[in-house]
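INFO  loader      accepted 1 record
INFO  loader      residues=306
INFO  predictor   begin
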Amino acid sequence: MMQDALYGGVNAAVLTAMNADLSVDLDRMARHCQWLLANGCNGLGVLGTTGEGNSLGIAERLSLLEGLVERGVPATVMMPGTGTTALTDTVLLTRRADELGCRGALLLPPFFYKGPSDDGLFAYFSEVIQRVGGDIRFYLYHFPAQSAVPFGLELVGRLLRAYPGKVKGIKDSSGDLAATRAYVAAYARDGFEVYCGDDGALHALLQEGGAGSITAAANVGSAISALVCRNWDRQAGAEAQVTLAAIRRVVRSAGQIPALKALVARHTGAPSWRNIRPPLLRLSAGQEADLFAAFDACGLQLAAAE
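INFO  predictor   done
INFO  writer      dumping tokens
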């Protein structure tokens, strides 16, 4: 396991709580963030895929970051998703994250235009990094199934050479462990932090020298993820990984974001956690019943909520 990574260990891809009118419920979200930090999380990936970040407007994203900090969520543990299709919006969000005290930001590539060249992507990230300035570090978000714009090894290396210390790591949500390992093998020795977006890969990645995870299932399984990290080189870590992988399978099989919102609603006793922005839809009662039965069969007992 990589030592001294800025976000080393367990990072939750945090759900965004919403009111009945689908506005952001900052109070409830802040309580969930604090619960995560008290139950195994080292960091919080807000405004990512799981947090419905791309369903929120720029003003909403800024208000969310500012509101969480105002409610006592430490900016230093947050890695907000700030990558957008518009260069100027990405700069605006990332600069504000830096001003608030976030140490890093997670950036999707500009994902509207498909098949961009490495030269085009390099130019985009160069513009962002130079315009943002400040102290914030940049983490690349490799999620080709969603963005259709991958981060190849050569592009990553080119960015690292051009911006040493600024391009700090990557979240690999490809689900391809071989690809995740390739980032580690190529660049981890230089301090490049590799995080898996797949809970099922956590134990294996840590053994390879990866930095940890940034995952959706950590919203409910962070304590198990922490066991894996603490015991990455022991049998206890391998055993905890079995449970962690089971939790991920259950959540993904039911539709990851609405499933996690249903689980958190049940755990907290707050039905409003089920609120979700279209085109995503909440689970039906039957789907929830099947989800809860499968989740409970994993054997995880969640700590008291909020």
